[in-house]
Amino acid sequence: MRIQLLGQHPQWLAENAARAAALGSYGVDLNCGCPSKVVNGSGGGATLLKDPELIYQGAKAMRAAVPSHLPVTVKVRLGWDSGDKKFEIADAVQQAGASELVVHGRTKAQGYRAEHIDWQAIGEIRRRLTIPVVANGEIWDWQSAQTCMAVSGCDAVMIGRGALNIPNLSRVVKYNEPRMPWPEVVALLQKYTRLEKQGDTGLYHVARIKQWLGYLRKEYVRGDCALSVDSCVKPFVRDCKGDSGHQNLISTASRKCAGQALSLPGAGIRKSS
C-alpha cells in the first residue's frame, strides 16, 4: 500500500513523504488529479495541472526525500480544462524522477462524465514516456479493463470509485471473477462499522456508510439484494450505538439513506468512475 499526498508546497510534500516512508508505506504518490472544489480551493489536486513546473518540483522533492528503493508515483488527469498540456505534464513527472505515472483519461473540467473518457490520449502519453504508465477511468469490470489496455497500450489499470460500487472489483478486473454477493457486502459494511466505531464520535462513520450505500446502489438493485430497509440498516444502528448522544441521528440518517440506496427506481444504472 502507498500513501497518497495532497498539496502544492514541495518542502511540505517532501517532509510528509519521508514520514510516510518511515511509517512503512511502500512508496508514496502525489495526487495531481482530484477535482474536488475543497481540494482545488487549497491549491492541491487537479489545480497542479495548471502548472507542470510545480508538479515537477513537488515530485522531485518527494523523490529526494524517500529511500531510492521505494517508488514515488504521480497521478494526473489529461489537463485542467483541456489536454493541451498533457505532454508537458507527463514530461514533468518523468523528469522529476518518478517511478510511475497514473493517468486519468479526462480533464478536470470533464469531471467523471463517461462520454469524455479518452483512453487513446493515455496511450499517446504512454508511447512518449519511458517510465510505466497506468490507465485510469471508466474501469467497471474485466471487459472494460481489457478494452482500456488494448486502446491505451498500458499493461496495467487503476480502479477508482468503482471499487466502492463493487468491493471486490480488483479481482473482477484481474481474474474475471463475479461481483461480490450482496450478503458478503453487508457483512463487509458491518465490519467497517465496527472498526470505525473504535475511534469515532458516532457521526463521521455513519456519514461514510451513507456515502458507501449511495455508491452500492449503482450496482446492487433491490431485486438483487432482496433486502428490506430494516434488514440492511438495523445492524448498523445496533453497531453504532454508544454514549455519544447521537443515536437518534444515526437511526434517522441511516434509514433515510438505505431507503434511497435500495429502493430508488433505476438504482442499478451505472455511472462514471
Automatic annotation (TrEMBL):
Swiss-Prot/TrEMBL keywords: Flavoprotein, FMN, Nucleotide-binding, Oxidoreductase, tRNA processing
Keyword Nucleotide-binding annotated: yes
Active site feature: 34 (proton donor)
Protein name: tRNA-dihydrouridine synthase C
Keyword Glycoprotein in annotation: no
Broad class of enzyme this protein falls into: oxidoreductase
GO MF terms held by the record: flavin adenine dinucleotide binding; tRNA dihydrouridine synthase activity
Cofactor dependency: FMN
EC numbers, comma separated: 1.-.-.-
Binding residues annotated for FMN, in chain numbering: 4, 75, 104, 160-161
Domain DUS-like FMN-binding: 2-215
